[in-house]
Amino acid sequence: xxxxxxxxxxxxxxxxxxxxxxxxxxxxxxxxxxxxxxxxxxxxxxxxxxxxxxxxxxxxxxxxxxxxxxxxxxxxxxxxxxxxxxxxxxxxxxxxxxxxxxxxxxxxxxxxxxxxxxxxxxxxx
Length: 125
Prior knowledge:
Low-confidence stretches: 119-125
């Protein structure tokens, strides 16, 4: 952990699985993860970035309900990929807009971090 300059340990797989099952809506964005336009289901807590996934959700979970009448636009983030791949709705958009105006693009920040002397020390040659 000290070589990666991390003070708090990351989540283990069981913690990620538990968090992913329980959390569908968060108040503030997770720093460093892109926030995108998405859709949320008004009948449950499901969120998606894509209309086709939302239509599929309605055909499986809300048969007989029209997806376009029971969804609203929202902001979403995808904290994990792979088996924990899921969009999470972000509700506090006012704070989000203020932060996104002040922050650089997260990918360029990541690239700059890997250019630092600490990161170069651990890169393969």
